[in-house]
Amino acid sequence: AALEAALEGCQSLEVVFRAGARHVEDLRTVAKKLRGLPVLDVGLPTLALVGAPNVGKSSLVQLLSSGNPEVCNYPFTTRSIKMGHFFLDSRMHQVRCDPGHQV
């Protein structure tokens, strides 16, 4: 009787798992994307560089901070937010480079 109950319980769990497996995969995909985003510390002063494509935002982040964004000589190099940090008057600041938008 115990073996039959265990088998029935395992079968019930399998039905629940199969029904929710797609949602678990969706959550894993979202978690993977979130891990790739930069972490913004809301307690730090932040310099956000925004502007047209190919005007030197990424170069400035690279020059000012610990950030190492891709710098190339063609528009739309920055495809996601890039972060870097720098110190000014012994206080850490963060700088972020947002993708340019065509105007």
Automatic annotation (TrEMBL):
Q: Which InterPro entries match?
A: G_OBG, GTP-bd, P-loop_NTPase
Domain OBG-type G: start-end pairs: 45-103
Pfam families per UniProt: MMR_HSR1 (PF01926)
- This protein's superkingdom? Eukaryota
| Cited Gene3D superfamilies | P-loop containing nucleotide triphosphate hydrolases
So which residues are the signal peptide here?
none
Keywords, comma-separated and alphabetical: Nucleotide-binding
| A single MF term (Gene Ontology) | GTP binding
Question: Per its record, how is this protein called by name?
Answer: OBG-type G domain-containing protein
Q: Which organism is it from?
A: Haematococcus lacustris
Q: Supply the source organism's classification.
A: Eukaryota, Viridiplantae, Chlorophyta, core chlorophytes, Chlorophyceae
